[in-house]
Structure formats: C-alpha cells, structure tokens
Write a structure and sequence with these properties.
By secondary structure, the protein is mainly α. It has one domain. The chain is 52% helix and 0% strand. It has seven helices and no strands. α2 packs across α3. The longest helix is centred in the first third of the chain and has 19 residues.
Length: 144
C-alpha cells in the first residue's frame, strides 16, 4: 500500500512496477502511451482545459487493442504475452496500480472490474486482422 503521508517521497513508475511485481515497465509504458492515443482518438483535439478527457475502462481496452495492432500488427498478442499481459483485466491491474500511486486518475464510477472480460485476446489480436492502409502507418510515425 502506498504511504498516505503527504511528505513521503513520490513513487516512481519503477517503484509501482516493483511493488505490483507482475508486469515489466515496458507494459506500463505501453498502457500510458495507449491511454494518450485513446484519449486523442475519443476526444480529438479538445483544447478547453476544463473539458473532461475521461475514458471508460472499455474505451481504454479498445484503444489499447488498436494501438497495439498499429505498433506490432500480428505480433501484438505475442508482445503482450511476453509481458505477462494475457487479458483486458491485466490492463486494468496496471491502470489501477498507476491510479493508486498518482500516475493516472479515475472517477468514483471507475472500477478495475470495468476491465474484466472486455474481449478475448486471441480473437481481438488475431481474427480478421488486416494490414492498415498507408495513412494509418504514417499516423504511427512509421514506427513498428
């Protein structure tokens, strides 16, 4: 459990990784990048600083799927499995660990259970995958 002492030293992401001890830091970084990707995809270029940029657990899972497929194509499930990420609930575990230590935020309605069973990884990452057209490849900066 994190310290409730406001004078305690701030946790680093590596501290969160070490305390959860389930997923490597690369998996957490992927979730953070995927969150940014999903927020932009859902909310667009909202410039109002008071506008909500909240997304649901299901929206994040869908965005992480899309982001992983853009980055790695048919290797997405293999990369995630290598990081011990085998279900959408694993995404939720990482998200709520980062929320607990102040790296992300949530509303009172958000729960780690929102991430349970959003989709089956085998189906989501392998069935019906198509190589994206050139404009999508450019959207990722040509990075794979």
């Amino acid at each position: 459990m994190p310290s409730t002492d406001p004078h305690a030293a701030a946790k680093t992401l590596q501290d969160v990784v070490d305390e959860l001890d389930c997923y490597p830091i690369d998996a957490f970084l992927f979730v953070q990048q995927g969150l940014s990707y999903t927020v932009e995809h859902v909310h667009g270029n909202v410039t109002d600083p008071n506008a909500s940029h909240h997304i649901s657990g299901q929206q994040l899972c869908d965005g992480l799927r899309e982001f992983a497929l853009l980055k790695w194509g048919l290797l997405a499930r293999t990369v995630l499995r290598r990081w011990n990420v085998n279900s959408t609930f694993d995404f939720g575990q990482m998200v709520f660990a980062m929320i607990e230590y102040g790296f992300m935020s949530k509303t009172d309605q958000d729960s780690v259970e929102d991430f349970r069973g959003v989709y089956d990884f085998k189906t989501a990452f392998e069935a019906g995958y198509r190589i994206p057209p050139e404009p999508l490849a450019k959207a990722t900066g040509g990075k794979t």
